[in-house]
């Protein structure tokens, strides 16, 4: 199965398309996003295109653009650790970032993450998700802990957090009060 679309929590995640690449590159190269990434190098247009060609038919990962009211506003991904479809993997890595847009709001990162994790646990039946967050990125650590992630390791500048389906389901129940109207 290639990248599925999902609409929940007032957000739509749609597979990344060539039309998304300029916005993704602009957001990824912004200091706000880039300085919180494992690789902090600037991405050229040709590197962005090569990345897209590499991930387009790779069933071990999914890449989405997030939309609110048809306005592109963010990016999310799930990546397996083996060269096998995501549905055949026990553990996957997750990531997301938000871009500057007219629809950005305080709960947007949570809404994008909820969609991403619903796909991971409901559609792909992944057993565990992990993510790495820069140790001083307190808002990302807090968001991940609200989603049910547990810190596992704290090496150098990074914290590794892991999430299981039962922990996520409990945490999602607590967050649903913020999304009842959408």
Automatic annotation (TrEMBL):
Q: Which UniProt keywords apply?
A: Transferase
Q: Which residues form the N-acetyltransferase domain?
A: 11-166
The answer to whether keyword Transferase applies is: yes
Q: Which Pfam families match?
A: Acetyltransf_3 (PF13302)
**Which molecular function terms from Gene Ontology are attached?**
acyltransferase activity, transferring groups other than amino-acyl groups
- What PANTHER family does the record point to? GNAT-FAMILY ACETYLTRANSFERASE (PTHR43415:SF3), SPERMIDINE N(1)-ACETYLTRANSFERASE (PTHR43415)
Name this protein carries in UniProt: RimJ/RimL family protein N-acetyltransferase
Q: Which organism is it from?
A: Celerinatantimonas diazotrophica
Q: Show the taxonomic lineage.
A: Bacteria, Pseudomonadati, Pseudomonadota, Gammaproteobacteria, Celerinatantimonadaceae
């Amino acid at each position: 199965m290639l990248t599925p679309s999902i609409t929940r929590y007032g957000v739509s995640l749609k597979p990344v398309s060539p039309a998304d690449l300029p916005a993704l590159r602009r957001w990824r190269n912004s200091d706000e996003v880039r300085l919180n990434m494992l690789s902090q190098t600037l991405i050229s247009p040709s590197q962005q295109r090569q990345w897209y060609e590499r991930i387009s038919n790779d069933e071990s990962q999914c890449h989405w653009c997030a939309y609110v009211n048809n306005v592109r506003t963010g990016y999310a991904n799930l990546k397996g650790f083996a060269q096998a479809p995501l549905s055949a993997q026990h553990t996957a890595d997750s990531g997301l970032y938000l871009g500057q847009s007219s629809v950005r709001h305080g709960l947007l990162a949570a809404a994008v993450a909820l969609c991403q994790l619903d796909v991971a646990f409901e559609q792909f039946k992944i057993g565990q998700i992990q993510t790495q967050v820069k140790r001083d990125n307190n808002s990302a650590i807090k968001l991940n802990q609200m989603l049910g992630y547990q810190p596992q390791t704290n090496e150098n500048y990074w914290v590794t957090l892991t999430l299981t389906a039962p922990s996520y389901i409990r945490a999602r129940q607590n967050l649903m009060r913020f999304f009842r109207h959408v």
